[in-house]
Structures are given as structure tokens and as C-alpha cells.
UniProtKB/TrEMBL annotation:
<dbReference type="InterPro" id="IPR035472">
    <property type="entry name" value="RpiR-like_SIS"/>
</dbReference>
<dbReference type="InterPro" id="IPR001347">
    <property type="entry name" value="SIS_dom"/>
</dbReference>
<protein>
    <submittedName>
        <fullName>SIS domain-containing protein</fullName>
    </submittedName>
</protein>
<dbReference type="InterPro" id="IPR050099">
    <property type="entry name" value="SIS_GmhA/DiaA_subfam"/>
</dbReference>
<dbReference type="InterPro" id="IPR046348">
    <property type="entry name" value="SIS_dom_sf"/>
</dbReference>
<dbReference type="Pfam" id="PF13580">
    <property type="entry name" value="SIS_2"/>
</dbReference>
<feature type="domain" description="SIS">
    <location>
        <begin position="36"/>
        <end position="221"/>
    </location>
</feature>
Length: 250
């Protein structure tokens, strides 16, 4: 790589954040993986939720070659991804009280399941209420968030709390407030966010840990294979049939 060096600086920043996660969050990641393995062993289901760009790491572990087939995406209409029009509506919906409870109360999640809630800031009503209501319903909750926001910003929800206050396990992404790793002369705002890179790595680490935990218990992790590998479709069809009661995206 060459040019103005910004690509190298961004990749170095991302590597630095990943190294911090590896060194400082290994116990939390292991605990999150164990919760998923516990739920699977007991016949429970696993869900992942994120709004806006925080939905990308959640989607990254659902119906994914090399991933656990039983990972399900919990969706809230208008907030999953950035395809809603107008785009700012998605951000506005994150601040609507009652929306998360309505989704959980009418959806498939039940006591004994695990819900991973991803929110960079963890300060808006939607992720906070999602975690709080899920625990009320008897789910175990893993929060993947930036603790820096809880220490450097004010809550933006009626409870006055953050996502991290309503979780059984919290994994800190180490992302700084503002989610921009670079500054440069001639560019008047910080740029180059790393939250998706880091949070996706955290999610894959959690899923990998869960698979390893299941194997250590003598259980076969229900993993998917690539459909572009010979026999992959047949393998996946068998896995999906065997665990049909826990795979809700079909």
C-alpha cells in the first residue's frame, strides 16, 4: 500500500483495537460463548440484534458458512440496516420507547434463550429496552458495546441507563466516542470508523467459542458449510432439518 498512508493508518488502528479486545475481553468473550452453548444444550435458541450499522455484525453471524446454524437475527422493522427511507428514520426509531418490548412480546424469543444486543453507544432506548425486557422475559443477554460511551456520554432514554447495565455478559469493543480513527490535514472532521470491523470480529469470536464449548461437552456444533463447496448444500439441508425448531430464518 502507498499513497497518502491513510489506509495503513486505519488498518493499524483496527489491529490495535483488535489486540486490545484479545487481551482485555477474552474472559467476557468466553463467558458469552458459554451462555450460547448452555442455551443450545438445554434446547434454547440464540438471537442477535443490532440497529443501523450495529445490525451488520449481527447479520454477519446469521446463515453464515462456517457459523452456527442456530444463530437467528432478531429484527425490528425500520432499524435493521440502512435501507429504510429516509435513512434518518432508522436513527429516530432507536429513540422510541416501547418498540423493543413490542417486538419481544410478540416475537419468538422465550425464557432460556440467549439474545446478543449490539449497540456501539448503548445509550438509546431501543437497545437498552431490548436488553432489559429480554431479561424480564427470562432470556440471558450478552451486550456488545463501547464502555467509553457509558463513561463519556449521557444516557438517551427514560431509564437513565446504558446497555451495559442490563446484561449478563458485557463485551467492550474499545471504540472511542465518535467512532472515527483518523484525522488529517485538510479534512475537517474525524473519519474512518472501525466499529464494524471490531464488533464483527467479536461476534465471530463468540460464536467460535460457543462451537468449541459444545465440542468440549461431546456435542456436535451445528455448523454450516459453504454452498460453493461440493456437498455444501446437502450438508446444510441436513443440519437445518435436524435443528429446524431452532432455526427461524428459513
Amino acid at each position: 500500500m502507498g499513497g497518502n498512508g491513510l489506509a495503513e493508518r486505519f488498518i493499524d488502528a483496527a489491529i490495535g483495537l483488535l489486540a486490545r479486545v484479545r487481551e482485555e475481553e477474552s474472559e467476557s468473550i468466553a463467558a458469552a460463548g458459554k451462555l450460547i452453548a448452555d442455551a443450545f444444550t438445554a434446547g434454547g435458541r440464540v438471537f442477535a440484534f443490532g440497529a443501523g450499522h450495529s445490525s451488520l455484525p449481527a447479520q454477519d453471524v446469521v446463515y453464515r458458512a462456517g457459523g452456527l446454524a442456530v444463530m437467528n437475527l432478531l429484527t425490528v422493522p425500520g432499524t435493521t440496516g440502512v435501507d429504510v427511507r429516509p435513512a434518518p428514520l432508522g436513527s429516530a426509531l432507536e429513540r422510541v420507547a416501547g418498540l423493543a418490548s413490542a417486538v419481544l412480546d410478540t416475537g419468538p424469543a422465550r425464557a432460556g434463550d440467549v439474545l446478543v444486543v449490539i449497540s456501539l453507544s448503548g445509550r438509546n432506548a431501543l437497545p437498552v429496552e431490548m436488553a432489559s425486557r429480554a431479561r424480564d422475559l427470562g432470556l440471558k443477554v450478552v451486550g456488545v458495546t463501547s464502555v467509553a460511551y457509558a463513561e463519556g456520554t449521557a444516557p438517551r432514554n427514560a431509564s437513565g441507563t446504558f446497555l451495559r447495565d442490563h446484561c449478563d455478559v458485557v463485551v467492550d469493543s474499545k471504540i472511542a466516542v465518535g467512532d472515527a480513527e483518523l484525522t488529517a490535514d485538510g479534512i475537517d472532521a474525524p473519519f474512518a470508523p472501525a466499529s464494524t470491523v471490531v464488533t464483527s470480529a467479536i461476534m465471530q469470536s463468540i460464536v467460535a467459542t460457543a462451537a468449541g464449548e459444545l465440542a468440549a461437552r461431546g456435542l456436535t456444533p451445528p455448523l454450516l458449510r459453504s454452498g460453493n463447496v461440493d456437498g455444501g448444500h446437502e450438508w446444510n439441508a441436513r443440519v437445518m432439518e435436524e435443528y429446524a425448531d431452532r432455526i427461524l430464518y428459513r
